[in-house]
Structures are given as structure tokens and as C-alpha cells.
Amino acid sequence: MPKILKAGRTVEQGKADARKVRDTVVAIIDSIEERGEDAVREYSEKFDNWSPTSFKLSDREIEACLAALTPRQVADICFAQEQIRRFAEIQKSTLKDVEVETIPGVTLGQRNLPVESVACYVPGGKFPLVASAHMGVVTAKVAGVKRVIALSPPFEGRPNAAVVTAMYLAGADEIFCLGGVQAIAAAAIGAGSIKPVAMIVGPGNAFVAEAKRRAIAQAARVLRRG
Q1: Measured between alpha carbons, how far apart are the two ends of the chain, in Å?
Q2: DSSP labels for 111-172?
Q3: Does the reported pTM lie above 0.85?
Q4: Strand (E) or helix (H) holding 201
Q5: Measured between alpha carbons, how far is 53 from 1 in angstroms, rounded to an integer?
Q6: Distance of alpha carbon 139 from alpha carbon 202, whole angstroms
Q7: Which domains does the chain have, with CATH numbers?
Q8: Cβ of 53: how many Cβ atoms within 10 Å?
Q9: Mind listing the pLDDT tens digit for each residue in 174-226?
Q10: Rounded distance, CA 151 to CA 87, Å?
Q11: Alpha-helix residue ranges (DSSP H) falling in the chain
Q12: What's the rounded Cα separation, in Å, for the pair 28 and 165?
């Protein structure tokens, strides 16, 4: 007789989980849209026990993160980013603008234009995804995005030194120590020192993924209302 060591979630349990994620995310986004940075701070303190004077890292805080790494660690980050940057530049070189007069008086074409602003989210926790900083920030800068912000949650009560270093060396224009749904909502809608962006990239858990799906749509509704 086989013994079941661990059973998977049933279809109904999966649906219930999805509803819970959806309802939680919607409530957080609605609260941030209504109360701005006060709500962001409330959720950051609740989920990450993190409520600094400013979520945006200062030059001094960034320098402290750089100093916390060994020269070899910094060199490894630089090496990885150089490989990603080089290939991103090769990819960009294949995207050509085209303009051609197909018949007299009729001109057709295409232009490749970067979006105005991007937020790159980098998961934190016990195993932060440093590579997400490389893939998100470096490629956005190569594409020509004018404003690239980077966000990642704190780890053990402070910014993760390796993640922040990777964000900085990749060329992020603004770095925020803020995570979870509250980070995604703040980047999409705007809250306090975080001005809204046109696009959000980067991996995350189910809550972050749901927030990305909903936050930009909600931000669009806010813009339409003027």
C-alpha cells in the first residue's frame, strides 16, 4: 500500500489561494492609492518591520553597501554585468528604424523607442536574486530608458549590500529599500518620494506577480481621471 508523504493542493484549494492573493493585493493597492506614502510605510512596517526616514537610499547608504562587500564580490558583479551589457547592446543593434516610400506619396516605417521610465524589482529575503538587478537595470539602461528605479526589500533589518551594489553599478537612477506589494503599488501609482513609472519588471512571489498585473492597470485609471 503506497504511503502519501505530501499531497498537492486540490483544485478548490488552489482557487481559494488565488482568491486570497487577489483580495490581499487589491486591498493594499486601494489603500496606497487612497493614502499614499502613509499606507506604504504601514505595510512595510507590517510585513518587513521596516520604516526608515526615507525608503530612498542616500549616497552614504549606498557607499556603505559597497564597502560591505569584498573586492572579489564587487569584481564578480562587474564581470556579470559587463557580459549582460555587451549582449544587450548586440540585441539593440539588430533593432533598426525603417522608413520607406512604398509608392509615390506613401511613406511607411517603424521606430524603436524606449519607454520613459522603468522600475526594476529585485526579490530579497534569505536568497536575494542579485542577477535580477543585472538583468533588469542593465538592459533598461542599454535600451535608453531615461529613468530607471530599483526596489528591493530589506534583509535582517537593513538593505542587502550585494543587491544594492548590483543596482548601483548597473546604473539605477534611484534605489529604494522597499519590497512586496507595497513597492509595486508605489512604483505604479506613485507615493511620496517614489514617482510613478511606465513599466515594472522583475520576478517575485505570487503577491508581487498579482500586484504587477493589477497596479499598472489601476495607475492607468488614475491617470485617466486626471
Answers
A1: 65
A2: -----SEEEEE---SSS--HHHHIIIIIHHHHHT-SEEEEEE--BTTB--HHHHHHHHHHT-
A3: yes
A4: strand 199-201
A5: 60
A6: 12
A7: 11-87+114-225 (3.40.50.1980)
A8: 6
A9: 999 999 999 999 999 999 999 999 999 999 999 999 999 987 776 666 556 65
A10: 24
A11: 11-35, 37-48, 59-68, 71-93, 130-133, 139-143, 161-170, 180-189, 206-225
A12: 29
Q: Which residues, 6 or more positions from 195, have their beta carbon under 8 angstroms from its beta carbon?
A: 117
For 195, phi then psi, to 5°, come to: -85, 145
Report the C-alpha gap between 8 and 6 in whole angstroms.
7
Instruction: Mention every residue, 6+ apart, whose C-beta is less than 8 A from residue 101.
Output: 107
Rounded distance, CA 149 to CA 175, Å? 6
d(CA 220, CA 135): 26
The strand pair at 106-110 and 117-121 is best described as: unpaired
